[in-house]
Amino acid sequence: MRILLTNDDGILAEGILALARALRPVAELTIVAPDRPRSASGHSITLHEPVRVHPVTLAEGIPAFATNGTPSDCVALALKDMLEERPDLVISGINRGPNLGNDLTYSGTVAAAMESALLGTPSFAISVASYADDAPYEPAAEFARHLASEILLHGMPPQSLLNVNVPGVAAGEIAGVRVTRLGRRHYPARVHRRTDPFGRAYYWLGGDPPEDVLEEGTDVKAIAERCISITPVHLDLTHYDLIPEVSTWGLASKPQQRLAGEPATDNP
Ligand code: MN
Q1: pTM for the whole thing?
Q2: Terminus of the chain with fewer CB atoms < 10 Å: N or C?
Q3: Which CATH architecture has domain 2-184+213-238?
Q4: Cα 99 to ligand 1 centre (Å)
């Protein structure tokens, strides 16, 4: 099987090397990843500067390509131009830190897998739910190898991907595998206001641990209970239940009259 690997932590990150080590014996790998950390870059693409690609050599002589683009750029470059044949699968990760619930719209890791799904190639994102320096990546890498073969066996429907989180513990301490839905995480104080030496305000975003809402059946709960979570994700973000509700709001006729403060009328 042919697999494309990418990530948002950058080409030198431990997680992508762990994936390469685990998958090299069973797959023909191409690795295309950002040349610097791009965490929380979401699904951004580079439109206003050139994107360049450089061959690099990772540990153990593993060949790879580094780009100045985003994770989504890496997938688009590889699938649309660099690879002569479409890979069977794109794997994004292994991310350092969880990508659970509300994290998904921020995550460059998950966005890279979304880009692949948009382009019609099966994909999954995988993260180790720990920022600890000694968190092991091998259990997640082994699980990725197993999941890759299952995806090739079963296939994936269009516009779909899997988002996987693995507890940051040794393999023997993982309590199970659960197929989950996205949970909720609250980031209580994402913005820190500071003052620079010239008396001007500046801000730091993030840094605070989120408060997890431990609802049954969610990825957040599975990780809290040391289980691997696999959440099927669909790219259709439509809130179908709200379509009839918003349809009753009286927005349908003559929007230009509404904006001008004129009463709406059905007359031409
Ligand atoms: Mn990351």
Answers
A1: 0.93
A2: C
A3: 3-Layer(aba) Sandwich (3.40)
A4: 9
